[in-house]
Amino acid sequence: MTVKSARDRIIDTALQLFEKYGYHGVGINKIIEESGTSKGGFYHNFKSKDELLFIIHDTFISYALNQVGKAVENNETPTEKLSQILKSSAENFTKYKPHQTVFYQDHTYLPEEYFEAISKKRDKVRDLINNVIQEGIDKGEFLPNLPVPIIGMTIFGMVNWTYKWYNPEGPFSNEEIVVIYADFTLNSLLTEEAKQKYQFSPYFEQVQAPQK
User: Fold this and answer.
1) Which residue, of 76, 96, 156, 189, has the fewest CB within 10 Å?
2) At what angle do helices 78-87 and 112-138 cross, to 10 degrees?
3) In a shared domain, residues 27 and 130
4) What is the spatial distance between Cα 104 and Cα 164, in angstroms, rounded to a whole number?
């Protein structure tokens, strides 16, 4: 069994406490106590509680940026890229659900320097998605005259807000939910000609509703 370092124990503990009580509901002493570390150990690894919050935020947004970047780089057509962007978000609902919760409920508490660093990565994710949508329009796969920023934010919000209601014990798995997202989005954006092209591809997958 791998023994976690003091730094990792502090991050994991802070993540759980911030998710449950909010950033301002948790003091450094509580993090130290719950993580089984010391004040010296805390300040050896982190300059402040603000830096700890930044690290949690950066872990999530860096993962999201990496996944979107790989989807764009490793796929050829806009349809394939957008489908993979949506499907790559499956881990967000499970492994990164606590990070998402803290990210969205506590991001306004980041000091300006940290807030700007996180905002730059968040904007890169948004821009990558918008670029894929614009590419789809330019190549005739997506409907013309789509309001790209609105469509991009709709997709961004649809995926990222799932943490609010997703239930791992519910009737649909995280993988099934993102298949539904991909199918819904592509059917909304693709031209009729493009739909025929992709009709029998794995980019259109149906998830059956659970039997009552």
Assistant:
1) 76
2) 140
3) no
4) 10
Q: What is the pLDDT of residues 65-77, one digit of tens each?
A: 999 999 999 999 9
Give the single-character DSSP code of 200.
T
Cα–Cα nearest to 27, from 64, 52, 2: 52
Q: Quick one: which of 172, 175, 170, 162 has its CA closest to 208? A: 172
Residues 75, 167 within the same domain:
yes
Largest Cα–Cα distance of the chain, in whole Å?
Answer: 64
Do 171 and 70 lie in one domain? The reply is yes
Nearest of 58, 185, 79, 75 to residue 125 by alpha carbon? 58
At 134-154, the pLDDT tens digits run 999 999 999 999 999 999 999
CATH number of the domain encompassing residue 8: 1.10.10.60
- pTM for the full predicted model: 0.86
Q: How many domains does the chain have?
A: 2
Residues 7 and 106: their CA atoms lie apart, in Å, by 21
